[in-house]
Amino acid sequence: MLASRRLASITAGLGLLTSLGCSVVLDFPQCVEDVDCTNTQGVELVCRDGQCVEPIPPSTVACTADADCAAAFDDTVICGVGGVCAALTTARCELIVRPEGVDSSGLVYLGSILPRTGTYAVLGEPMHDAVQLAVEDFNSATTLAGGRKVAWVGCDSQGDPAEAAAAARELVAAGVTAIVGPGLSAETIDVANVTAAANALLMSPSASAQVLAQLNDQDLVWRTTGNDGTQAAGIAARIASLDPVPQRVFALVKNDLYGEGLIDGLSPRLADVLPTNGLGTALYSPIESFDTSEALLAEYGARVALAFDREPDVIVVLGSVEARELVLFYLEAWAGADPRPPLPRFIVSSEAVPMLEGIVEGVSDNFKPTLMASLEGVSHDALDPDNYEPFEVRYSIRFDRDAGINAGLAYDAAMMLLLAHGASSGPSGGAELAAALGRLADPAGVSITFDEGLGFIRTVLEALQAGDSVHLQGISGTLDFDLGSGDLPRDLTGWNVEAVSGTTRPILRARRHYDRAAGTWADL
After folding, report:
1. Residue 451 above 80 pLDDT?
2. Assign residue 454 a region: left if phi > 0, alpha if psi is -120 to 50, beta otherwise?
3. Which domain holds residue 205?
4. Are residues 125 and 178 in the same domain?
5. Average pLDDT for residues 343-363, to the nearest whole number?
6. Is 19 part of any domain?
7. Which of 403, 441, 425 minimizes the C-alpha distance to 203?
8. Sign of the torsion angle spanned by Cα atoms 277, 284, 343, 371
9. Closest CA to 376 of 352, 393, 401
């Protein structure tokens, strides 16, 4: 009865308005956010002032200040290079950290280009998280000159050199001059061609190909990982140290800058270890290059068959995430052979070390102990004996997962770039940041370690502001850069896969150390 009275009252009210010659226009907004503009025609629309409209490319809008772009778009669009707006959040990149309550003039932007999705996400995600932790640590501990805070734009390369280069173009268009990445050697040359021309500095946590030290990059490409010249020497020395010394080795080589660089360094070194024709090789395509699983199976199966026919004592996989498939394909062929040849020893290179646990998880529980006894990896040193463990605890609490072996390299790369910004009283281009890195990597400077209390951040900045130089001990080890090449000379770690006590669950354990100066391995 009450509802009927209300309806009658509303109807009467509308009738009264009509009788008075008035009309009511109900001007409801079409949208509140971009997702409200989804349409069946598939036309890209965005929400602006409550209306769904076609997007205006930021690069077509002139500007003299960030406020011009914020007014036309939002605060994820800033006034970039050339006096035009530049978007920080795009299909590839995202403004992930932007301190609240800080005007854009009080921000310094750090960029990153790492594989966050796709085949290589298993490598890129821990490094991406580590960059975030470094930015959060820096902002919580201090500010840059003038009270400026750090904002961070994280880009997803998908492990694709073309996507990585496109992300680099977006970052430099926005005026970003310090970039962590790329994550893969194969991406780095394409990215460096973009960034060096724009006076932006790259620092990769994991691109280790030897040729990257020889780029004509105006001293703007650096890395916290080691150089694969050392890795090739270390793998050869490891093979030579096996008892008995292998007579037949087969190398499965990824057909990219990383894999080919490693085999170029490894082959001549093994010539002094193996008998004539003792080394067999086969190139294979990157796993992401296949359009179908059938094509992948056909090529990888053929490469594994070549290896199997050689009955090798050792199989070396000079590759990346696809090492899991290659080893498991070989084991499938081995299990079906009659008679079975002796099981070879498998050695994987640095980009494949994070896959070792997954390789073991791919076999039956009964076979896991046998496989773990025949499986190992080699990587550049990345875990400082004092600083890594506290970092790993903080990382696991913050992101609810294990840090892995490369996260410390990414943390150090991000922190070094932020500290380099701290050496300047104003905006810094890549050349200025490179000069500042020289003051951060001085063996005669004040020794400072990246301890868990984060007080090191202010200590470093105070030393720099006082005109001193510093010598840093990071999460990954001593940060003694070669100022001419941007390389960071590192020894190597040898990894085994072992079962967690009382289970068959595999876990990586560092069991050997390679001294690059002596050229020898020692058990830990």
Report:
1. yes
2. left
3. 91-225+382-489
4. yes
5. 98
6. no
7. 441
8. positive
9. 352
